[in-house]
Specification:
Elements (H helix, E strand, L loop, with lengths): L1 H10 L4 H12 L4 H8 L3 H21 L9
Helix pairs in contact: 2-4, 3-4
Length: about 70
């Protein structure tokens, strides 16, 4: 629960687009295919945006000491 609280707090530090993507995929349970259709882009592009958002979130977690530097 603590980790979920920390991650939710850090979502505010992502760009608005990254926040919306993460919230749609993980909290609203929208599929990548459906999200791509809603946004008018390809599923491949959603996948790239997702990877970028997760990378930014991981970097924030490392900066705060929640994850170790070598954690993937």
């Amino acid at each position: 629960r603590e980790l979920v609280r920390i991650v939710l707090g850090m979502l505010n530090e992502l760009s608005e687009d990254e926040q919306n993507l993460i919230q749609s995929l993980y909290f609203k349970h929208t599929s990548m295919t459906d999200l791509a259709a809603q946004m008018g882009i390809t599923k491949s592009w959603i996948s790239r945006l997702h990877a970028r958002a997760i990378s930014h979130l991981r970097d924030l977690l490392r900066e705060r000491g929640v994850l170790r530097e070598n954690a993937e």
